[in-house]
């Protein structure tokens, strides 16, 4: 990965950008495909690294990322 690629996690300056992109994804299929595509649509983001970081925070699929990570007390805008 390039050094300019960012890991998007709660507290990151661009977290809300990711959260608003994911917020359009209303259905969970038990995968992180929507989170992945949200990240992939952002520039200079380490998609795999961010997904791994989110999984460690409990975001193992799209709905867990949306409910447990985006809206967790540690998340921005909680
Ligand atoms: Zn889910």
Short description:
With 78 residues, the chain is an all-alpha fold. The protein has one domain (15-70). Helices cover 45% and strands 0% of the residues.
Key traits:
single chain, mainly alpha, 45% helix, globular, binds zinc ion
Descriptive account of the structure:
With 78 residues, the chain is mostly helical. It has one domain. Helices cover 45% and strands 0% of the residues. It has helices at 15-22, 33-40, 47-56, 62-70. It starts with 14 loop residues before the first helix and ends in an 8-residue tail after the last helix. The mean pLDDT is 87. Bound molecules: zinc ion (ZN). Residues 28, 30, 61-64 line the site of zinc ion (ZN). Zinc ion is lined by residues 28, 30, 61-64.
Output the number of helix runs. Answer: 4
- Overall mean confidence score, pLDDT: 87
Overall tally of domains: 1
As a whole number of angstroms, the C-alpha radius of gyration is 11 Å
Percent range for helical residues? Answer: 40-55%
Assess the beta-strand content as a share of residues.
under 5%
The secondary-structure class comes to: mainly alpha
Separation, N- and C-terminal Cα atoms:
31 Å
Which kinds of small molecule does this entry bind, naming each only once?
zinc ion
Q: Strand count, sense and closure of the main sheet?
A: none
Low-confidence stretches: none
Question: Topology of this protein?
Answer:
Layout: H1 15-22, H2 33-40, H3 47-56, H4 62-70
Helix pairs in contact: 2-3
